[in-house]
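thought: fold this chain, then report.
action: predict
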Amino acid sequence: MMEWFSALDGFSQFFWIIALIGSLLFVFVIITTFLSVDGGDDFDNVDSSINADAGIEFQFITFKNLVGFFTIFGWIGIACINAGFSILVTVIAALVGGILMMLIMAAMFYGMKKLADSGTLNYKNAINATGEVYLTIGANRSKMGKVSIRVQGTLRELEAITDSLFELKSGTIIQVIDVTNNGILIVEQTKKPIEPIKQETYELPPNTTNL
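observation:
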């Protein structure tokens, strides 16, 4: 192995070193990202420190994307050298391939983040929604209960308290008036919204006016 590597010229060794190191890091990044293990969180922290503007959701220059860049940069460089291309063409092709890889990875991780965020429950969306008490809620915040309520298009059972002077028993219709900082609903008793009565109209046959 060492003899093979030593036989290569310096230009080829440069691309082989980048390709091998980049590939190892790339495999580790992909595995930790999809399995959501601690290593993936560490890479997210590195990404945050590299990205100067934390408000930009579509992150182009991140540690993960740079790993992808150098991986493709190295392998395209090796392919160009084996194909007999000049040094200039090899470097340009490797750079273009690496940048394209960064764009692909940035778009992929951006899509994954948006998908994860869309499934995250925002308790503020429950304000003004009506539901039903599932587990009795104590009066004046004396006992936490649970309510069954539809939030973000899904029926959920969430913890709730009330400022009412009377306990809200199971089956009571409630409305969410606020949410605490730790995601507990503050509810009050209400009534089911009255649905408008559907009125049906009928048309008389044309010849009824002659009767």
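thought: worth noting. The first strand starts at residue 130 and ends at 135.
final: tokens above.
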